[in-house]
Design goal:
alpha+beta, 3 strands
Length: 84
């Protein structure tokens, strides 16, 4: 990777999940090394949590980090994780 295309040290790679259907007054936030999930109903937030856990497990099995995935690999992984 050339130095011009390498992310700066301040750049973070990860998943940001935002749930917009939370109307019960609860403030839901779940943060991990490679993800931040905010908002949503209990069901939506739980679904986002399940998705990032599946994604994280898959990336670990490949011996990679999210930063090392290509855009296509990431998109495929996200689609697969949503289908389950």
């Amino acid at each position: 990777m050339s130095s011009s295309s390498r992310p700066s040290p301040r750049t973070r790679t990860g998943v940001l999940g935002v749930g917009l259907d939370g109307d019960d007054g609860h403030k839901r936030v779940t943060q991990g090394e490679d993800f931040l999930l905010v908002g949503g109903s209990h069901e939506t937030h739980e679904r986002m949590q399940d998705m990032v856990v599946r994604m994280s497990e898959h990336v670990k099995r490949k011996g990679k980090t999210l930063r090392e995935l290509s855009k296509d690999e990431f998109a495929d992984l996200a689609r697969e994780s949503l289908e389950r």
